[in-house]
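Practice problem: predict the structure.
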Amino acid sequence: MASAYSDDFNFIKDLPVSPSGDHHQLSQSKVDTSPLCDYLPKKSLRRIDHFSRMALLSAGKAIKDTDPSLFSKDNTGVIIATGFGALQTTFSFLDSYIEKGDKLASPTHFSNSVHNAAAAHVSIGYGITGPNLTISQFDMSFISALVTAGVWLDTEKVKTVLLGTSDAFCDILGYCIDKFSNIKKTVGYSFGEGAAFFLLTKKEDQSKYGYFEDISVENYKKAGLYIPENTLLVLSPSAINTCNDEFMTYLKKNKKAQYRNHLFSPTDSSMDALFSTTLLKKVCYIKIGTDGVYGKMIITPNLKESDFNNGNKY
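Answer:
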């Protein structure tokens, strides 16, 4: 840690389940979507791009991991959060437009390039007929989607929400990060890709992993930052890079353990939410965006130490 972080950050611990790697260099973690054929017919995937395949694979795993009594296709809504959308597919469509003109540009690339393509593929692939929504708000995408899912459940629009994230790496994104981003110069991280899905209900006691006790999007420049005393603090990589001096002073004086995950992406908070349940204690997760905006999740795990001692893998 001391070699990877400046003095401002060397008191922050890594999440125990953080991916390892050389954190002095930009390194992307690519997702193998070949297991998707175990969930959906191979012929139905022929025209689906990598961005949507990641979402389909993660959604399929979440559905398989769910108590069937909690999942009704007719009364489940789908929400997908993405920071960048299908970047590689978008650039491929633009290439075809530039090379062949508007009349011969690739319709397949175009249909997959729109941000809500993944959500549509999830609903069609798994036969879910409830409302379908895509939210794209860069760093706040996942937490904003959680807020929306909470409204759907509170107003009984649906009984369950299949909420997920998907963000894909591509060479152009890697080039931009390497040439223009200052994050890699001060904080070690691995910019990766991935998808994570949750089946959300109002029945917190029936959750295998845990539940979201509180979710909010606020502005610390207007209302300050409040972190409950009885929680562990987990920071996203972007929060470490963008938070203000006042917040860093608070962290240094705080005697609670603080953790972070090495994987950085606009929707890394969805993966961190799952990682946080393995800490076996109530967690306050902070992701700071731009202009003082920050997202906060209070996560209470249902996992017990015995779940790991029995050889279960999460």
